[in-house]
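Researcher: Please generate the 3D structure of the following complex. Treat every line as part of one assembly.
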Amino acid sequence: MKLGLIVAMEEELKIVLDNMDINEKTEYAGMIFYDGIYKGVKTIAVICGIGKVNSAICTQILISTFEVDKVINIGVAGGIGELEPGDVVIANSLVQHDVDASGFNYDLGRIPRLDTFDFKPDRELLEIARKACKKIDNHKIYEGRIVTGDQFINSSEKANWLKRYFGAIACEMEGASIAQVAYLNKIPFIVIRSISDNADKKASISFDEFINIAAENATIILENLLKEISKIEEDK
Ligand code: ADE
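Model: Done. Output below.
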């Protein structure tokens, strides 16, 4: 079993790289793929850069070149509604909120000619993620829809609309495109994010303040998740 671990930014992979046994580093499309063992699991870890194109390219490389069996995306996100910085979100559904083919009568977010509106994580990974989160008691854990777009959301009007229209509880810029690539390749995936801001006009200030705490929270969940995966693999 080989795991692909994607983050968008350096800050989100720092703790992982500090604790991973790295065997090899390879560069593709300007991204460095770290091949090694993390928490007992064979892992390819990579910083993909920000946005849907970067994250989609990266996911396909993980699948086609490194032949990973599962994809995990961790990092930070803007919280919508009651969510606060530091809280953790496990995505049970992901949608690209910036897709608009309404001129052809498609609902906003719907990718034309694709057989699904949203992308759902692997059930087994979701179950393991829930377990991994139960071991944490110093921050709130939510499960719900994360929406993704090539936009940093810093307006409460837009954030409220994302909640009203998509039922989103968090927004970020990579999750649903990673999910789409995994879906098209029939590879199990999960997206876990920790909140860095409230996607309002103070979002960029809050983002800078909380990014390290939020990245650390997402990493703690990831570590628990990998420990669980490693146990399951040992029992196989
Ligand atoms: N990632 C973290 N905060 C975000 C926001 N407000 N919008 C988009 N992506 C984010």
